[in-house]
Amino acid sequence: MLNSNTLSSHKVFHLPFSLYLMICLLVPFIFGCKQSEEGQIREVCRSFISGRIASRDGDSLVLKSVTEDSLFRLLMLNEQYIKVVDAPTMRPNLDIYPTKVNIEGNQATCKMSGDEFYYINLLKKNDRWIVKGENDIYASPDKIAAVKEKIRKYQLFLVDKPAKDSVLRVVNFFFPGVQSGFKDNNFKYLESLCDRSTISFIQKFFDYARQRTGTPILISEINSNNSIVGNVSFKGNEASFKFYEEEITIELKKAEDDYIITGFNHMASKDISRPIMEKKYLDLLRSMKFISHKEYRSQNIK
Is the dihedral angle over the CA atoms 174, 176, 178, 184 positive or is it negative? Predict the structure, then answer.
């Protein structure tokens, strides 16, 4: 038979009914709020992804509605750059959906499905969730400025491209033409590529080169020469083709719809005198691609 001490040790603790009722009401409320927050975040992420896809076709309304302003600007600038370049581009696969949400105060992350690790960062602002970044990528003034500069440079490239193509065409025709002229003394081919002063200078320079080095040595060097890589720059109606990592140039000038060669190594052909030929002999040979870079050319040419 149980005594009074045993009964007292097994007393049951009873919550007040009002407190019990409050807990019963609060638990589903809190859980429901969390579920509601997660639902909002998932919906924002779905809208963000569908907005990214729509923005590729020029419709940015959905994307703008769920994205922080600076990130939206960065994303749209990236789209603009892709369109300006107008080349095949590897784009991320956006056939994905939210899988896991983690909320910490007014910030959240949403892991997305797919083979690649990708999550969306969100911020609660004015009682609504908006996207502020992707993975560890966030918008910043420096990133926005960098993309704008890329767009500006590529647009300039597109403007200059026809002129650059014209210059490169002339230069690529000039090299075999001037070398052929040295071998057979025929300058007809160069008449459409150079001005009269340049052709006159080339003839005088050939006479000096034959005298200084000799025809057989130069022809041997010409035949063993490699290709040239260079860059084109413009100043008004003038252009310069500069050999890569060398101070060797071919100077050109716009004539009607095309460019013609007017000088070498930052000098107009009409200003290249005999003393200059003697002093700048190797550089002038190099500008006509008669000799290789100084590291590889024949030691007989001095």
Answer: negative
